[in-house]
Amino acid sequence: MSKQPSLHSPTPTLRFRKLIDLSHPLYPGMPGWPTQPSLNYEMIKTVTRDTYALTLITRMVTHTGTHIDAPAHFLSAGKTVDRLPLESYYGEGTVIDLSKKKAAEEITKEDLKEHERDIRNDEVLLIRTGWDKKIGLIPEFLFEWPYLGVESAEYLVSRKVKAVGIDGLSIGGWNETVPAHPPSAKSSPTDTHKILLSANIVIIEVLANLDQVLEGSDRARGFFLFAPLNFVKTEGSPTRAVAFLQ
Questions:
Q1: Does the global pTM surpass 0.90?
Q2: From the centroid of its chain, how far is CA 77?
Q3: pLDDT tens, the chain, 246 aa long
Q4: How far apart, in Å, are the Cα atoms of 118 and each of 29, 64, 125, 225?
Q5: In 113-175, where do the E strands start and end?
Q6: Are the C-beta atoms of residues 195 and 150 closer than 8 Å to each other?
Q7: DSSP one-letter string for 12-34
Q8: In terms of Cα–Cα distance, which of 199, 205, 175 is closest to 189?
Q9: 96 DSSP assignment
């Protein structure tokens, strides 16, 4: 007769050898999309005066810092952050190193096909360009990050990934005009977003520390979490993205 397991037997736990923060710190005036208002917050209660502390966020767009794009960001009938299932915001996947790309250079379908075996159905793909190390109020970070083109976005849809992320300001390139800088993207970032979001592929932008996941390799596996705040009827949200390395 087989022995029944004890009610006091230890519960199996998931173990990871390393956790890596993939998010940039948030602070007032931090670099972000050049034509959007910057983050601002202030302490309105202090322990010394009021016996407790409280901070008021006075200005923040939903695409502040490391954040996700939901389909509603570019699609009028697209799902908002709260309408996507929770499993849309985590999963196994791969980081690939494309830091060879130059400023304002398009990431092509051919670039991705070099990593074809790492781009898998219902998994997460994160692209390292190294642009997280350039963060600052400088043209290279604000306007000239490498980006996905239309054909590369279509390729990811064909591979049926569940999410794609990048360490630049956007998955698409810079296409606006400001006094200090003209458009730099050769393909439409609007089209890139629409192609991905139409397939309910979650986009993660302004990631950090992907080099720590790679650990000197050109690819690395991991489990990734990038859950948004559960805002109702919003097209995006900041996220504290994390990589769990087994």
A1: yes
A2: 22
A3: 444 444 555 555 567 899 999 999 999 999 999 999 999 999 999 999 999 999 999 999 999 999 999 999 999 999 999 999 999 999 999 999 999 999 999 999 999 999 999 999 999 999 999 999 999 999 999 999 999 999 999 999 999 999 999 999 999 999 999 999 999 999 999 999 999 999 999 999 999 999 999 999 999 999 999 999 999 999 999 999 999 998
A4: 37, 29, 8, 18
A5: 124-128, 147-148, 163-166
A6: yes
A7: P----SEEEE--PPP-TT----T
A8: 175
A9: E
Token pair belonging to 6: 């004890």
Rg from Cα positions in the chain: 20
What one-letter code names the amino acid at 204? I
Question: d(Cα 128, Cα 99) in Å, to the nearest integer?
Answer: 6
**How many CB atoms lie under 10 A from the CB of residue 245?**
15
